[in-house]
Design goal:
211 residues; mainly alpha; elongated; DNA-binding; DNA binding; HTH_TetR; Transcriptional regulator, TetR family; HTH-type_TetR-like_transc_reg
């Protein structure tokens, strides 16, 4: 006979189901448009059960944002660990994943996140951490001979973030295929920071992707 889940296991599974459902709904409709009751109805659970697990929408939203960051970092780490990777491999994978994460998300979702001070603080901390990691990454790329030593990577990192924000805020991914945006905007931006060695590897990989 099969052993039934314990109450603790069930509650943990339900917590994850709520989190996943809420994340999908928030990104599709925006935060304000989604009520806690809506999520409970989708999952066919009582409002009481819902509020026992997540006390309010802000807590649920915070967990959804944290989960997004964890999933992205986990995907990147899995990619890095899956073989011998150099900086061109990693930066291409990073931006491909970023473009995929924007696809299908209602822009109002990102706007509304900034109405929550604790979530805004978390996002700013993550961005600061990302910029610090990016500078170390670019330094590694310079040392390996793939990135130009004469570029200001602090400026480039900020411009990179601004480019992604522009794509998101203006919904370019709805007007154009994400792959076209990648090839015509991000690819040219990245290619410009490369040395001849970097350009050669960059072009080789893009040719492989087109096959």
């Amino acid at each position: 006979m099969y052993k039934s889940n314990t109450p603790t296991e069930y509650r943990q599974e339900l917590r994850q189901r709520i989190l996943k459902t809420a994340s999908i709904e928030f990104k599709a409709k925006g935060v304000k448009a989604v009520k806690m009751d809506d999520i409970a109805n989708i999952l066919s659970i009582s409002k009481r059960t819902m509020y026992e697990i997540y006390k309010n929408k802000e807590q649920l939203l915070m967990e959804a944002v944290k989960e997004d960051h964890r999933n992205f970092e986990s995907q990147m780490q899995a990619y890095v660990n899956s073989g011998k990777r150099h900086v061109i491999d990693i930066i291409l994978e990073f931006y491909q994943l970023k473009m995929q994460s924007l696809s299908g998300v209602n822009p109002i979702y990102y706007t509304e996140l900034h109405r929550y001070s604790d979530i805004t603080k978390l996002i700013e901390q993550k961005h600061h951490q990302h910029r610090q990691n990016a500078l170390l990454f670019f330094k590694q790329g310079v040392e390996e001979g793939y990135f130009r030593p004469d570029a200001n990577y602090e400026i480039l990192s900020k411009v990179s973030d601004g480019t992604l924000n522009y794509i998101m805020e203006n919904q370019l991914y709805k007007q154009y295929d994400p792959q076209d945006i990648f090839c015509n905007v991000i690819m040219l931006f990245l290619r410009g920071m490369c040395t001849l060695k970097g350009i050669s590897e960059f072009d080789r990989q893009m040719t492989e992707k087109d096959k």
